[in-house]
């Protein structure tokens, strides 16, 4: 739990004006190839260099993380998400894999998970369905039905 708290604490948020929702600020000196190399090295390191993975992925926007994943795939000839899934575990794995999804993809997967199996996680459903705009709900519905 402490690792997740530290991880979330490193997110860079743009709060110059009251945002509609939290926004990660794009990295200024962004280089997808350099970041892909750092991730690949962190995964290959004996014991996995979790801090490097955290440092890179929490300081990039979703579109930058997608570019890193594409550069990683070109470089390592394998999917970065699969590699991260194999290298990480527990709460850190959950958070990192969540970061690799768009907001709508993440919300749709959380809704799917909250109604899967016996019982329903009403808190998750209420939080997502009551805190999103109509446009966001339409996008979540589209992604959910894919």
Describe the structure.
The structure is a single chain. With 146 residues, the protein is mostly helical. Helix 2 runs antiparallel to helix 3, helix 2 crosses helix 4 and helix 7 packs antiparallel against helix 8. The longest helix is centred in the middle third of the chain and has 15 residues. The protein is globular. The two termini are 32 Å apart.
Number of strands: 0
| H and E order | HHHHHHHHH
Proportion of residues in helical segments? 55-70%
Strand content: under 5%
Rg result: 16 Å
Number of helices: 9
Q: What class would the helix/strand composition place it in? A: mainly alpha
- Give the terminus-to-terminus CA distance: 32 Å
Large-scale geometry: globular
- The average pLDDT value, as a whole number, equals 87
Biggest sheet character: none
Uncertain segments: none
Family: Belongs to the annexin family.
Protein name: Annexin
InterPro entries: Annexin, Annexin_repeat, Annexin_repeat_CS, Annexin_sf
Pfam families: Annexin
Compact overview of the structure:
The protein has helices at 2-9, 32-44, 50-57, 62-76, 80-87, 90-99, 103-115, 122-131, 134-144. 66% of the residues lie in helices and 0% in strands.
Keywords:
mainly alpha; globular; about 150 residues; 9 helices; about 65% helix
What's the SSE blueprint?
Blueprint (H helix, E strand, L loop, with lengths): L1 H8 L22 H13 L5 H8 L4 H15 L3 H8 L2 H10 L3 H13 L6 H10 L2 H11 L2
Helix pairs in contact: 2-3, 2-4, 7-8, 7-9
């Amino acid at each position: 739990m402490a690792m997740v708290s530290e991880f979330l604490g490193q997110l860079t948020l743009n709060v110059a004006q009251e945002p509609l929702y939290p926004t990660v600020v794009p990295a200024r000196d962004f280089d997808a190839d350099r970041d892909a190399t750092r991730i690949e090295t962190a995964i290959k390191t004996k014991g996995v260099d979790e801090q490097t993975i955290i440092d890179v992925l929490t300081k990039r926007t979703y579109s930058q993380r997608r570019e890193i994943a594409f550069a990683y795939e070109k470089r390592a000839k394998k999917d970065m998400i699969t590699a991260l899934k194999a290298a990480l575990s527990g709460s850190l794995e959950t958070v990192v894999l969540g970061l690799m999804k768009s907001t709508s993809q993440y919300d749709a997967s959380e809704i799917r998970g909250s109604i899967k199996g016996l019982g329903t996680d009403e808190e998750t459903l209420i939080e997502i369905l009551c805190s999103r705009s109509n446009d966001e709900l339409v996008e979540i519905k589209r992604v959910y039905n894919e």
